[in-house]
Specification:
Blueprint (H helix, E strand, L loop, with lengths): L2 E5 L5 E9 L6 E5 L11 H9 L3 E5 L17 H10 L10 H15 L4 E6 L1 H12 L4 E7 L13 H8 L6 H8 L13 H14 L5 H12 L3 H4 L6 E6 L7 H10 L3 E6 L11 H13 L2
Parallel strand pairs: 3-4, 3-5, 5-6, 6-7, 7-8
Antiparallel strand pairs: 1-2, 2-4
Helix pairs in contact: 2-8, 3-4, 6-7
Length: 296
């Protein structure tokens, strides 16, 4: 896969690993993945369906994840950032915010020569996509926010069981890592969630790149970026919010609040979808994204 050296903020430059599907002559669709998830979390088949629908699909590894630049050694006190966020007090220093991660995406579009793109993000990627639309409206043709939230801590709260799995320190041993990762079935679709498939995906993820150090920095970026609800109200572009009714990691209220904040948003709440993208739902989800991007 190729890498792009992008001009961004904090640091000034970094390398982003990326991959494309389809023709660069088609409208670009940038896919932004979530917390500690590599670009491969956008399944090949999912991306190919979008490319077959006439989109130039771009997926990439966020900073501190996968094969993109790591900010080795930059420490952050996640609990202090969360406490300051909830109290509305001055935030302690963080290595970067969601705004920096949105700037990374803009830098990638610059390298690819894409002036404007349709943008779809999942989970933390939805938060980055929202920030991208807010802060760089001239670069975003449409916004799809999936299994995400607007940053309002009152919405989208995880269940205790899901939060425990999310915050558990990943073991460095491959087999132990896969065993622990299989517990993410707690937030998968009840109908389609499959432990064997989850184990296969996390094994491939471990083999591609195991980098747990980036997790606290990404989590701090989420907490430090605060509530986007008021700024989302200023958006004037085609917008779609997709959320699963089975989602226990970011509860459906997160998607509902996102859709309520964006004046132009359509909310698609899906039964049989958790905090995942089950293949049986790909035809519905990809059609919704393609239909939205057809409107611009």
């Amino acid at each position: 896969m190729p890498q792009a050296t992008v001009s961004t903020t904090s640091p000034a430059k970094l390398d982003l690993e990326y991959e494309t599907f389809g023709s660069p002559d088609d409208p670009a669709l940038l896919l932004v993945m979530g917390f500690v998830a590599q670009l491969t979390a956008w399944d090949d088949g999912f991306c190919q369906r979008l490319a077959d629908g006439g989109r130039y699909v771009v997926r990439f590894d966020n900073r501190d994840c996968g094969l993109s630049t790591k900010l080795d050694g930059q420490a952050v006190d996640v609990q202090a950032v969360l406490a300051a966020n909830l109290a509305g007090s001055t935030l302690p220093p963080v290595p970067y915010t969601l705004s920096d991660m949105a700037n990374d995406a803009v830098g990638l579009l610059d390298v690819l020569g894409v002036p404007r793109a349709h943008v779809a993000g999942a989970s933390m990627g939805g938060m980055i996509a929202q920030t991208l639309a807010i802060e760089h409206p001239d670069r975003v043709l449409s916004l799809t926010s999936m299994m995400s939230s607007p940053g309002d801590p009152r919405t989208g709260k995880p269940t205790p069981e899901a939060l425990e799995v999310l915050l558990a320190a990943p073991p460095a041993d491959r087999d132990a890592y896969i065993d622990q990762a299989a517990k993410t079935v707690v937030w998968a679709s009840r109908r389609y969630g499959d432990v064997a498939t989850i184990r296969e995906k996390f094994a491939a993820s471990f083999d591609r790149n195991f980098y747990p150090e980036g997790g606290p920095r990404q989590l701090a970026a989420i907490y430090a970026s605060g509530d986007r609800s008021d700024r989302l109200a200023s958006l004037d572009l085609p917008a779609l919010v997709i959320h699963g009714r089975d989602d226990t990691l970011i509860a459906p209220s997160g998607g509902e609040a996102t859709a309520a904040a964006i004046p132009t948003a359509h909310l698609l709440l899906l039964a049989d979808m958790g905090h995942d993208l089950p293949p049986p739902l790909w035809p519905l989800i990809t059609a919704a994204i393609l239909n939205l991007s057809d409107s611009r």
